[in-house]
UniProtKB/TrEMBL annotation:
Pathway the protein takes part in: Cofactor biosynthesis; coenzyme A biosynthesis; CoA from (R)-pantothenate: step 3/5; Cofactor biosynthesis; coenzyme A biosynthesis; CoA from (R)-pantothenate: step 2/5
Superkingdom per UniProt: Bacteria
E.C. number(s) listed in UniProt: 4.1.1.36, 6.3.2.5
InterPro entries linked to this entry: CoaB-like_sf, CoaBC, DNA/pantothenate-metab_flavo_C, Flavin_trans-like, Flavoprotein
Ranges for domain DNA/pantothenate metabolism flavoprotein C-terminal: 185-396
Protein name, per record: Coenzyme A biosynthesis bifunctional protein CoaBC
A molecular function (GO) term: phosphopantothenoylcysteine decarboxylase activity
Phylogenetic lineage: Bacteria, Pseudomonadati, Bacteroidota, Bacteroidia, Bacteroidales
A Pfam family this chain is assigned to: DFP
Region of interest (Phosphopantothenate--cysteine ligase), ranges: 190-400
Cofactor binding remark: Binds 1 FMN per subunit.
Family from the record: In the C-terminal section; belongs to the PPC synthetase family. In the N-terminal section; belongs to the HFCD (homo-oligomeric flavin containing Cys decarboxylase) superfamily.
Record: residues binding CTP: 279, 289, 325, 339, 343
Length: 400
């Protein structure tokens, strides 16, 4: 996918700059031509000689050469590129890019670049979490740039948290997927449900569940990153959808989620139902806060909610793909098979609470995918972002 592609690799002043050498090697091995643009601070962390030897191209850092006065045209470079990748991208460079502070060759090249831009942040966890950095990243996303989220782990400061630049092989895989026409979701519309539903008992109490929305939001971001327009029907969660192509519709109850999903479904190519929808709701909702003193012992009568997946399964058109989840605690494959058939799904993603690191709230998941043809594919424990990619790869093959 990268054969013959022109890639500008921007390197900034981070300890992760050494990983840029691995990125160049992988890109060159896959047939890409790499032109390195490095900031002055970047050169403190890795030498231009190493980078030039690996890329077989002189490394560009300054606007002018002191020796002969020749100048490097950031405009020509920007036009030459099929993609620009900034890895590692420091908080400082991200800030400059977000605000057009063009005081070095890397940022001027970025501003001149017409090709897609990928940014792989690398910094300390508090710097990454700081609202300034997050707002700058949101701004860059809103311009259509692709942010390759940093991973969690031990940082140069020896603190542990989110801020480690993503590994070179995963960064290169992101570019490969982008250029792989067969893996794109461009021009596709996807409905995704995520998070829990809240079923109201009175104005201060509800029946809910432990869903954090992490799995559903990872799916939404991954679909949008592949070019899809995403309709994310979300229960109450503390997460935010970041990609500009995600339209978030916030709901609270299963009934509201049902109404939204039924409205949106006819206009989409596929739906992925990741929400943990309450199967029951209280028959009566009290308008006033229920008082223990006046109520005494209390029995809640619950009535079943509509099954959103099964309802969509009934109105599904031949060219639409419907993907469900099954969250199980025993006899997993049997229950997932039953749901796959009963709800008329194309495939179902099974996760079991018996697997450590799987299911609610955690950053990882362990899934199996079971399809209509009876094929069961098991995957190892992965981050929810990686799990989302596995699910979307399966979806893309179905949409063909
Ligand atoms: O949000 P996280 O903390 O990241 O956790 C992720 C998750 C555990 C919620 C997710 O991976 C998951 O398993 N989601 C589905 C949870 C669930 O409700 O599973 P289920 O087996 O009860 O339901 C089967 C399918 O029917 C699901 O696609 C569900 O969305 C759908 N359903 C269920 C009930 C209902 N009334 N309507 C539905 O559409």
């Amino acid at each position: 996918m990268l054969k013959g592609k022109h890639i500008i690799l921007g390197i900034t002043g981070s300890i992760a700059a050494y990983k840029a050498a691995y990125i160049i090697r992988a890109l060159v091995k896959k047939g890409a031509e790499v032109q390195v643009v490095i900031t002055p601070a970047g050169k403190e962390f890795i030498t231009p000689i190493t980078l030039s030897a690996l890329s077989s191209n002189p490394v560009i850092s300054e606007f002018f050469s002191n020796r002969d006065g020749s100048w490097h045209s950031h405009v020509d470079l920007g036009l030459w590129a099929d993609a620009m990748l900034i890895a590692p991208a420091t908080a400082s460079t991200i800030g400059k890019m977000a605000n057009g502070i063009a005081d070095n060759m890397l940022v001027t090249t970025y501003l001149s670049c017409k090709a897609p831009v990928f940014i792989a942040p690398a910094m300390d966890l508090d710097m990454f979490a700081h609202p300034t950095t997050q707002q700058n990243l949101d701004r860059l996303r809103s311009f259509g740039n692709h942010i390759i989220e940093p991973a969690e782990g031990e940082l140069a400061s020896h603190l542990v948290g989110k801020g480690r630049m993503e590994e070179p092989d995963k960064i290169v895989a992101t570019l490969e997927t982008f250029f792989d026409e067969s893996m794109t979701l461009k021009d596709k519309k996807i409905l995704i449900t995520a998070g829990p539903t809240y079923e109201k008992i009175d104005p201060v109490r509800f029946i809910g569940n432990y869903s954090s929305g992490k799995m559903g939001y990872a799916l939404a971001e991954a679909c949008a990153a592949r070019g899809a327009e995403v309709f994310l029907v979300s229960g109450p969660v503390s997460l935010q959808a970041k990609h500009p192509s995600i339209h978030r519709i916030s709901i609270e109850s299963a009934e509201e989620m049902y109404q939204c999903a039924m409205d949106v479904f006819p206009s989409v190519d596929a739906a992925i139902l990741c929400a943990a929808v309450a199967d029951y709701r209280p028959e009566m909702t009290s308008a006033e806060k229920i008082k223990r003193e006046s109520t005494g012992e209390m029995t809640l009568k619950l009535v079943p909610n509509k099954d959103i997946a099964a309802s969509l399964g009934q109105i599904k058109m031949a060219d639409q793909i419907l993907v469900g989840f099954a969250l199980e605690t025993s006899d997993e494959v049997h229950h997932a098979t039953d749901k796959l058939k009963r709800k008329n799904l194309d495939f179902i993603v099974l996760n079991s609470l018996r697997d450590q690191g799987a299911g609610f709230r955690c950053d990882t998941n362990k899934i199996s995918i079971l399809d209509q043809e009876g094929t069961l594919t098991e995957y190892p424990l992965k981050s929810k972002q990686e799990v989302a990619v596995d699910i979307i790869n399966k979806l893309v093959s179905r949409l063909k």
